[in-house]
Specification:
Layout (H helix, E strand, L loop, with lengths): L7 E6 L5 E6 L2 E5 L6 H15 L4 E5 L3 H16 L18 E4 L4 E6 L5 H5 L7 E7 L7 H9 L2 E11 L7 H6 L2
Parallel strand pairs: 3-8, 4-6, 4-7, 7-8
Antiparallel strand pairs: 1-2, 5-6
Helix pairs in contact: 1-2
Length: about 180
C-alpha cells in the first residue's frame, strides 16, 4: 500500500452555524522514542474525533492483550476526564475490555490485538469501516504484514492511519516500511 503524507482539513458546519475542522487522510509511519507519549497523542486525537463527529469508528491495535487493555484503559481515563456535558462527553453504550461505544452519535472506539495466525490476521477489521486506525508496536506483531493488509483493506479512503513503534531491529516490518 502507498504511504501518503497528505493532510486535509475538512470543514463541518455545526447546527449553530459554527465551523469545525476535522483532520482526515493522515498517513504516518514513525519510530517513536520510549515514553515520549506519541501513542497517547494519537489516541487522544482519535478519541476527540470519535466524540465530536457522528458515525466515526476508531480502531486501536496494540501488540498483545495486555497492551490492548492498557491502551483502552488510558483512553477511557481520558474520556472520563472530560467534563460531563452532552456536547463534550456523550453517553456511553457498550463498555468492556475491547469496546467503547457512543450510541447517541453512532460512533465507536475499538481496541484489539493483531492476529497470531495467518487466518486470524486476515480477519482483522471485518464488520465495519474504520475512520481512524492506530497500529502501535507494529514490528512486534506475530503477522504484521498480513494484519496490515487486512486492516488497510477495511478503512475509508479518508481514514487517518498511524503506524508507530519503538525500534526492534534493522529490517523489521517497520524499518522496511519506512524505507519505501
Amino acid at each position: 500500500w502507498d504511504i501518503i503524507k497528505e493532510r486535509h482539513w475538512l470543514p463541518f458546519i455545526l447546527p449553530n452555524g459554527a465551523v469545525a475542522h476535522r483532520l482526515q487522510g493522515v498517513r504516518d509511519v514513525s519510530v517513536k522514542f520510549r515514553d515520549a507519549g506519541s501513542t497517547m497523542f494519537w489516541a487522544a486525537l482519535f478519541l476527540w474525533d470519535t466524540l465530536h463527529f457522528t458515525g466515526v469508528t476508531t480502531k486501536l491495535y496494540a501488540q498483545n492483550d495486555v497492551g490492548s487493555m492498557l491502551l483502552l484503559k488510558k483512553v477511557k481515563d481520558m474520556f472520563l476526564s472530560i467534563p460531563e456535558h452532552p456536547l463534550f462527553r456523550p453517553v456511553t453504550g457498550e463498555d468492556n475490555d475491547h469496546f467503547l461505544t457512543f450510541p447517541t452519535i453512532r460512533s465507536q472506539l475499538l481496541c484489539s490485538t493483531p492476529g497470531s495466525s495467518e487466518t486470524v490476521a486476515e480477519q482483522q477489521g471485518r464488520g465495519d469501516t474504520g475512520d481512524n486506525l492506530l497500529l502501535t508496536e507494529y514490528p512486534f506483531w506475530p503477522k504484521p504484514e498480513s494484519t496490515l493488509d487486512a486492516l488497510v483493506g477495511r478503512i475509508a479512503s479518508t481514514a487517518n492511519v498511524v503506524i508507530e513503534s519503538t525500534g526492534k531491529h534493522m529490517n523489521d516490518a517497520l524499518h522496511q516500511m519506512m524505507e519505501l
